[in-house]
Design a protein that fits this description.
The complex is a heterodimer of chains A (about 475) and B (about 240). With about 475 residues, chain A is an alpha+beta fold. Chain A has helices at about 50, 60-65, 70-85, 95-125, 135-145, 145-165, 185-215, 220, 290-295, 300-305, 315-325, 335-355, 405-410, 410-425, 435-445, 450-455; strands spanning about 25-30, 35-40, 175, 180, 230-235, 245-250, 255-260, 270-275, 285, 295, 375-380, 385-395, 400-405, 465-470, 475-480. Chain A is built from 16 helices and 15 strands. Classes of the chains: A alpha+beta (about 475), B alpha+beta (about 240). At the A-B interface, helix 2 of A face loops of B.
Chain lengths: ~475, ~240
């Protein structure tokens, strides 16, 4: 709900909605009322990096996933991959690796479906300027009930896969240092195989919807929150898209390689983080390019832009179509995230199909161990992008240091750029209009940010938009939702 | 010399031997009286008070009270359930019990008791005491955050293992289970194979590097509530676990 309080120089807007967590945007103006900078502030704080200190290392995959209820599997697996190295068990048994992959693809499926069907589809189906009373998931359920049901059922399928591999739909315990604690029974497998054709079909339809939406609205979207950037993701040894494991690849806006096949254990030689006073969220950048030019995008857009190919046929065909739009160059459109995300949704469904037919899932060799180590890095491609977990563990098995760079943190500068671009294009005068607020939200939402993860924060914070002049004086403020203030 | 007698629990007449405690007699008859500190083979000390029953109308701990002919015992009453729930809730708030990432979850007697009694969240304010972890032993970890001062480890080390590794130190809120060495468990003669390492009802004494190996669904209390092992096997069940 817009809640406007004006006292001459101040207007208040309420939170950016339909993102995971809460945030606040400040738009800074110069003397001529032109936008000089936009800042997405994440002012919540959680402190997971501090309170895992002293805890035993085998507890960490279960503990840190409590950062989030949306994609806890990402944190569970990133931490488990890190702890694999602590016990010298990073070369998993085929059963363990495939069970973990099944868990991860199940999560990617449910998270991407949640984002597209429940959070984003209202904007795409009703238009950015539609009445917020209609432009929400309830509105979608009323006008497009079959789509809403598909979203719910795809989420359910993904969640059931997580339950079968991790023990619970949310916050399971499946991945343990050096492996997993269960396999997939024949009965469980057969249950998933029965429903799979429908899931694949729905994934195809969702991809079609995202692709057609982008094509049909290309004129409007081509410049909407669009900017050139570097892109970073994990890729497999041949450059293929790999959401669970691989090496780091970074490309620039023209598609040129910045680095490739970098062992992520050495990420610290390539990636650094900058701290700014106005946000708890850090600003990562590629060291060789510096903080000004080294920032990069992560997530579906970065992955589809940067990978050489996708190793599942339908998603690969979709990738080629996606690349054809830009003549093979990286796509710089913020709104292309949705199309890329749906390519990954189909990829996840295809991967699940392949895995479910693999008899290794019923294997009983679940855990391996080897040389004990004391420092470790675990990475996965979470639904929202590259997720870094870095730990040090002492000789008594206690974690002594932890650094997490989560997907939304990696996308911090890009989200600021997207907001800045939208503000420049749509701000008129010194008041925040409903249209501007909507567009700021749409641009941020494309990145599927998980703001609470990004600062390891908890609690309620509205995503408000503030407009400030050169001296920092508040000109206007608007916020949405029950927390409007 | 023992004699066979009869006692009554919640209106049910059960046989008992005069050397039995109420808890032992009830266990043999397949009647579960909730408990957290009592453990088969260890001398009962009545520290947790969860096994409190009404004996001829007066509250007594079932683990320490010997049976007597004609005793009339009440076990399952709303008032006793309320008292037990309060005790369990107090144990939760007096320590730092985060079930969501505790490896004992699903196998924990305190958690199992809370579920059995239908406790969703404590009514009392959390004390959030500052407690430590002793990780100095190569194979066993002590997380004092989760200790409920049942005393099982202290007794098991003496009775079962012939050692004297643990003892209470400090008083009131500074009370803790200490070890007989200045620099932690690693300096004692404690071994992961000691029975004292197996008896902890909560996640305070843990064998290292095996946490979460049992998947959700296969843990002890995933399958049936705490106490059901006594209720379903009335004849030969042990008195705890």
């Amino acid at each position: 709900m817009a809640n406007v309080a004006t006292n001459g120089k101040r207007i208040v807007i309420s939170p950016v909605t339909r993102v995971e967590g809460h945030g606040k945007v400040t738009i800074l103006l110069d003397d001529d009322n032109k936008v000089t900078q936009a800042r997405l502030h994440i002012v919540e704080f959680r402190g997971f990096e501090r309170f895992v200190q002293g805890r035993p290392f085998w507890e960490i995959p279960v503990l840190v996933q409590r950062l989030c209820g949306i994609c806890p599997v990402s944190h569970h697996l990133a931490a488990a991959k890190a702890m694999d190295r602590i016990v010298g068990g990073e070369k998993l048994t085929p059963t363990a690796e495939k069970i973990r992959r099944l868990m991860h693809y199940g999560q990617t499926l449910q998270s991407h479906a949640l984002h597209f069907f429940h959070l984003v589809s209202p904007d795409l189906l009703f238009g950015f300027d539609a009445d917020p009373e209609i432009r929400n998931v309830i509105g979608v359920a009323r006008k497009f009930p079959e789509l809403a049901v598909q979203g719910v059922m795809m989420r359910k399928y993904g969640q059931e896969l997580i339950k079968a591999t991790a023990g619970k739909k949310i916050h399971g315990t499946g991945a343990i240092p050096g492996g997993v604690n269960k396999n997939l029974s024949i009965e469980e497998r057969d249950g998933f195989l029965k429903d799979l054709p429908q899931i694949v079909q729905w994934a195809r339809s969702a991809l079609k919807l995202a692709k057609e939406y982008t094509s049909e609205h290309l004129k409007e979207l081509a410049d909407f929150g669009t900017f050139e950037s570097n892109h970073l993701c994990l890729v497999g040894p041949s450059g293929e898209l790999d959401l669970y494991h691989g090496n780091l690849r970074a490309i620039d806006a023209g598609g040129k390689t910045i680095f490739d096949q970098v062992d992520y254990q050495n990420y610290i030689d390539y990636i650094a983080e900058e701290v700014k006073s106005w946000s708890y969220m850090k600003f990562p950048f590629i060291k060789s390019l510096g903080p000004e030019n080294g920032w990069y995008r992560v997530g579906p857009l970065a992955r589809i832009n940067a990978c050489t190919f996708i190793d599942t046929p339908e998603a690969e065909a979709a990738r080629q179509e996606f690349k054809a739009l830009t003549g093979g160059k990286p796509n710089a459109m913020t709104m292309a995230y949705h199309w890329a995300r749906m390519i990954e949704l189909l990829h996840a469904a295809e991967k699940i199909q392949t895995l479910l037919h693999d008899p290794d899932l019923q294997g009983t060799d679940l855990v391996v161990k080897g040389e004990r180590r004391y420092e470790t890095v675990g990475l996965v491609e979470a639904p929202r992008g590259t997720l870094f977990h870095h730990y040090e563990v002492n000789e008594h098995d206690q974690v002594t240091r932890c650094n997490l760079i989560v997907s939304t943190t990696n996308n911090n500068t890009p989200m600021n750029r997207a907001v800045e671009k939208v503000a420049r294009d749509y701000l008129s005068g010194t008041t925040i209009t409903e249209g501007l607020l909507n567009r700021v939200e749409v641009a941020i939402r494309a990145y599927d940010p998980c703001l609470s993860c990004a600062t390891h924060a908890m609690g309620q914070m509205p995503l408000a938009v503030e407009l400030r002049d050169r001296r920092g004086e508040l000109l206007d403020r608007r916020a949405k939702g029950v927390d409007a203030r | 010399m023992t004699d066979s007698i009869t006692i009554s629990i919640d209106g049910v007449e059960i046989p008992a031997e005069t050397h039995h405690t109420i808890l032992e007699a009830a266990d043999k008859a397949g009647i579960y009286i909730p408990r957290l500190c009592a453990y088969p083979g260890l001398k009962p000390n009545g520290s947790c008070r969860v096994c409190t029953v009404l004996v001829n109308g007066r509250p007594q701990t079932a683990c320490t009270t010997p049976v007597m002919k004609g005793m009339v015992i009440q076990n399952e009453t709303p008032e006793l359930k309320r008292l037990r729930s309060n005790l369990i809730e107090m144990l939760f708030v007096e320590g730092n019990h985060y079930c969501m990432f505790c490896e004992k979850s699903g196998n924990c007697e305190l958690q199992g008791m809370a579920y059995r009694l239908g406790i969703k969240t404590p009514h009392f304010p959390y004390l959030e005491p500052k407690r430590e972890i002793d990780a100095t032993h190569p194979d066993v970890l002590i997380d004092h955050n989760r200790c409920i001062f049942c005393g099982r480890c202290i007794q098991a080390s003496k009775t079962f293992d012939g050692k004297n590794v643990f003892q209470y130190i400090g008083r009131t809120r500074n009370k803790k289970v200490g070890v007989n060495a200045d620099d932690g468990l690693g300096e004692t003669d404690f071994a992961a194979t000691d029975r004292a390492a197996q008896v902890c009802p909560v996640g305070a004494i843990l064998k290292k590097r095996v946490g979460f190996k049992i998947p959700i669904g296969k843990r002890i209390y995933d399958r049936s509530p705490i106490g059901s092992e006594i209720e379903v096997q009335p004849k030969d069940a042990g008195s705890a676990q």
